[in-house]
Design brief:
The longest helix has about 35 residues, at about 40-75. Helix 1 runs antiparallel to helix 2 (about 40-75). The protein has one domain (about 5-110): DksA, coiled-coil domain (Four Helix Bundle (Hemerythrin (Met), subunit A), Up-down Bundle), CATH 1.20.120. Helix content is about 65%, strand content about 0%. The chain is built from four helices and no strands. By secondary structure, the chain is mainly alpha-helical. It is elongated.
């Protein structure tokens, strides 16, 4: 990857990491336990529990994405940066900017998943 693109990519990853860290804080607040003695109605309590479950799933996904971004940042100077881990072909820069945590080209991602 060219030096200018690598720097742009690195800055983009750092920005996304900061955003995800803030999102994680918010999700952790939204997934706090719901006390059983809370004076809300039965239906509202069920809705709160459902909402908590949705936020827990979003928290897990965000934490996983953060780990992948941090790994990409650690490997920013690797010679194989931007190469697909399956076919070893270059991943288009636009795809990397949309999904900086990816290590698969579109074709390989479609095959795998």
């Amino acid at each position: 990857m060219e030096k200018v693109k690598r720097e742009k990519f690195e800055n983009h990853i750092r920005e996304k990491i900061e955003i995800l860290k803030k999102d994680i804080i918010s999700f952790k607040e939204l997934t706090a336990p719901i006390p059983p003695d809370n004076a809300i109605g039965r239906l509202t309590r069920m809705e709160a529990i459902s909402s908590k479950s949705i936020n827990e799933a979003a928290l897990r996904k965000t934490e996983y994405t953060l780990l992948k971004l941090e790994r990409a940042l650690r490997n920013i100077d690797a010679p194989d940066l931007g190469l697909c881990r399956e076919c070893e072909e270059p991943i288009p820069f636009a795809r990397l900017m949309i999904l900086p945590e990816t290590d698969l080209c579109v074709e390989c991602a479609e095959k795998i998943g």
